[in-house]
Amino acid sequence: MDSKRRARLSSVILRESVQLLRREVKDPRLLGVSLTRVELTPDAGAATLFYLNDLSEHDGREIKEGLRQLQPWMRRQLGAVLELRTVPEISFKEDRGLENTRRVAELLRQIKDEAPVPVQETEDSSTK
């Protein structure tokens, strides 16, 4: 599958998955979960949906279990919308991009705060 078609398919999968998660999923473990992006394999046989759980009061294990249980249902629902011969296998993975960005920003701030004081140059007495 060419990259343009894969990008369009990723966009449709994300849009439809977000709508399904918001409108039809009643699992309390998933109430604060938001989907951020989709990565498709080159043959579009598998789709990884990335998520953030910033608003959820449940721990990561509970959310992962809720999403694992959601996979077959989500794939069936997407199959009804996508009109493809083969619907990609669905998996979920926590999106750590925002967390990593925050961590790098914090490290840069710490480095800035700990910057060494510039040393003032003094006249060398041997050049007089």
Give your account of this protein's structure.
This protein is of the alpha+beta class and 128 residues long. It has one domain: GMP Synthetase, Chain A, domain 3 (2-Layer Sandwich). 48% of the residues lie in helices and 16% in strands. It is built from three helices and three strands, in the order αββαβα. A hairpin with a 5-residue loop joins β1 and β2. α1 crosses α2. The termini are far apart.
CATH class type: Alpha Beta
Q: Which band does the percent of strand residues land in?
A: 15-25%
**SSE arrangement, N to C:** HEEHEH
Please state the CA-atom Rg, rounded to the nearest Å: 24 Å
Going by helix content, strand content and strand pairing, the class is alpha+beta
- Classify the fold: give the CATH topology: GMP Synthetase, Chain A, domain 3
Round the mean pLDDT to the nearest integer and report it: 86
- Outline: elongated
Q: State the domain count.
A: 1
CATH architecture: 2-Layer Sandwich
Low-confidence stretches: none
Number of strands: 3
Q: How is the main sheet built?
A: 3 strands, mixed
Q: Biggest sheet, strands in spatial order?
A: 1-2-3
From the N-terminal CA to the C-terminal CA, the straight-line distance is: 76 Å
Helix content: 40-55%
Question: Given the structure, what is the number of helices?
Answer: 3
CATH homologous superfamily (4th level) name: K homology (KH) domain
Considering the chains and any ligands shown, give keywords for the structure.
128 residues, alpha+beta, three-stranded mixed β-sheet
